Amino acid sequence: MDKKQKIKTAAESGTKTPEAPQGMEAPEVATPSETAEATEATKAPEASSSLPADYLSEGYYKGEGAARYIDPDLVGETAQRLAQDLATGGMKQTATNSILRELKRADKKTLPLDAKRGALAGAIVTAKQLQQRHRAPGLLVDLLERNQATIYSDADYKAAVKHLIAVGVYLGDYQQQATEGAKK
After folding, report:
1. Distance CA 83, CA 136 (A)
2. pLDDT, position 129
């Protein structure tokens, strides 16, 4: 059997050939498991977490100029939903305390924006450590990374800190509800 016949035979049987003659591409036939893996790999990051697709797509604020204000959903409904998802993922409020403390510490007028973004980068590292120790779901890392990508000014950082504090507070509420429910 010559090389052309080997390639044809391999393609017909559904296997891949390790090499193809120069100038000629070997046809590849994807197996069902390879197709499933490819589909899984092409999913958007939002599909693996509970972050809404439009989360922070319009930034932190509503309104313009002097009438600009932080989006109430970011400290309300969205923060509650994220906190509930984190609690469902097994996260405790105490795990967020060090992250929030560092973010608040960097929220000073005298610090440049780079320092504030650096504090958020440090928070992402802490969240990844928590995830590796199975103390936080991957959602926490996704949440912090999305916030970091949305910060363009000192005002954005301040709004991000308010939003993340709200998530932490609501996480404590869900944790307390779960504790009280377990006692009954």
Report:
1. 12
2. 96
